[in-house]
Amino acid sequence: MSRKKNHKKVEDETNASVKKEMAEPRMARSARIAELNLGKGRIPERPSASMPGTVDKIIPSARPSKPEKAQIAVELPDYRYRDLRIENTLIDEHGDDVKLKKGAHVEITITAKDVIRHK
C-alpha cells in the first residue's frame, strides 16, 4: 500500500516540473543558442591546438621589402602538414623585435577563426 503513495508523490513532482516548463514561453533552438552566446558571464573561447616544433631553416627573402621566413617542422603523429612557414618578424612580451634561429624549439598554437558545428 505504501508503494502507491510513493508512486503518486513521484507523479506529482513530474507534473509540477512539466507545468513549470510549459509556463515558460516557447523558444526555437537557434534562439536558445543565441541567448547562451549573448550571456554576459560567458565568453566564447575559440578552439585551439598546441604542438611542439623545431625551426628547420631560415629562408632569406627575395626582395629587401619582404621579411625572411622561418620553416618550422611540426612533430605530428601523422605526417600530413608537417612543415609551416611563417614570417620571421616576431615581438616578445616586452615589445622588442625578435627572430627565430635555426634549431630553436618552439610551441605552435593554432586557433580556429570560424567553427563548423555538426548536428
Report on the architecture of this protein.
The chain is of the alpha+beta class and 119 residues long. The protein has two domains: 2-37; 48-111. It has helices at 2-23, 29-37, and strands spanning 48-59, 69-74, 83-87, 90-91, 97-98, 105-111. Strands 3-2-1-6 form a four-stranded antiparallel β-sheet, with no helix packed on it. A two-stranded antiparallel sheet has the order 4-5. Strand 2 and strand 3 form a beta hairpin. The longest helix is centred in the first third of the chain and has 22 residues, at 2-23. The radius of gyration is 28 Å and the shape is elongated. The two termini are 47 Å apart. The mean pLDDT is 80.
Which descriptors apply to this entry?
alpha+beta, 119 residues, two-stranded antiparallel sheet, 2 domains, 29% strand, 2 helices, elongated
**CA radius of gyration:** 28 Å
- Low confidence ranges: none
What fraction, in percent, of the residue positions are helical?
Answer: 25-40%
Bin the strand percentage: 25-35%
Straight-line N-to-C gap: 47 Å
Inertia-based shape: elongated
* Helix count from the secondary structure assignment: 2
User: Main sheet: which strands, in order across?
Assistant: 3-2-1-6
Number of domains: 2
Main beta sheet:
4 strands, antiparallel
What structural class do you assign from the helix and strand content? alpha+beta
What is the count of β-strands? 6
Question: What is the N-to-C succession of helices and strands?
Answer: HHEEEEEE
How confident is the prediction overall: mean pLDDT? 80
